[in-house]
Amino acid sequence: MGEQKELKHILIVEDTPQNIDLLVAMLGHQYDLSVAIDGGAALEILKDLQPDLILLDVMIPVLDGFQVCEQIKAAPRLANIPIFFLTAKTATEDIIRGFEVGAVDYITKPFNAAELNARISTHLELLSSRQLVEQQLKELAEANRENKTLLHTLCHDLANPFASISTFSQIIADEPEMSEKFLPIIFEAAGHGLEMIALVRRMEALKDKKLELDDVDLFEAVQQSVMLVNPKLEAKNVHLEVQVKPDSWVQAERTSLINSVINNLLTNAIKFSYPGSQITVSALKRDKAWRLTVADQGTGISPKLLTELFDLSKKTTLPGTEGEEGTGYGMPLIKKFMELYGGVMEITSTAQPDPAHGTQVFLDFAEGEGHV
């Protein structure tokens, strides 16, 4: 006889007997269920229980659903449990507030069995995927201790953009008039998700310490990266001067050079530049090596922060000149790729209020072979 698959556990927090009976009838055949009839009882149960998903009614005694959700999300052991709010179909304000306090989805009353099962299944699959990624990233962290902080953050956040896409799309499907409010959120979430997947893939390459190097033309790589960041340059009115000539061949891996190294350098330079200022990208051949320089006229980096820039245990991220946010992982990632290319990365910077404020990043590459 095959091994019996362990059922996922769902906590139902609902005070109406008819709704409890209905949810048990809909879900009891495929999930282990626990029931709490008020907010206080739910939090008491969660002291000993780690459910896979929580169905949480908004209007319950003792503590309402929003208060319960806030306390769950504040507890590290429980924070990643997906929470569905149970609410009336017309309660748009409840739905929005539910997302604000940490819910990932909502179910409207009266319950539809097919919809309920489908949406629970979707989020449990997301949870399983996140747990799988967590295990894979944990193995990476064991192999490379200094990446532990970065990998933990990626693992924790990976499922969130896709959950947002799912839930806000459902709101728009139910209430098309909400599209203007929520479509920008969906687009932003999709971008974050794609960026995180790409970063996980790049970190997977770093795990094995193997990249297939080839001859890459710095001129072409810079042009490709400029095309990617051009909207940011235009939006901030930052002028970019490129002093890189064709046939500047170096040893590197093309995809990571464009998308991780040069792109991160330009994005950082734009972030800390003032509107109307200039960024210069130049390449100079020295013996059998090429030096790529990215120089900005931005805020600069303090001497203390400069010494901590590649230490993942330190908080190095700062807001840009227009409040732009970042992860703080761009520079460490660039340095790792340069090491894999057999190259070197150096940074010099002068911070405000010095009139000569700005940052210069130097990347030294081995010369590519087979090109004149």
What is the gist of this entry?
This protein is of the alpha/beta class and 372 residues long. It has helices spanning 17-27, 39-45, 65-74, 92-100, 113-143, 148-157, 159-174, 179-207, 218-236, 254-271, 303-308, 330-340, and strands at 9-13, 32-36, 53-57, 83-88, 105-109, 214-217, 239-243, 249-252, 278-286, 289-296, 344-350, 358-366. A hairpin with a 7-residue loop joins strand 11 and strand 12 (358-366).
What is the rounded distance between the termini? 68 Å
Could you give me the name of the CATH homologous superfamily of the largest domain? Response regulator
Helix segment count?
12
Number of strands: 12
Structural class: alpha/beta
Order of helices and strands: EHEHEHEHEHHHHEHEEHEEHHEE
Strand content: 15-25%
- Taken from the alpha-carbon principal axes, the silhouette is elongated
Classified by CATH, the class of the largest domain is Alpha Beta
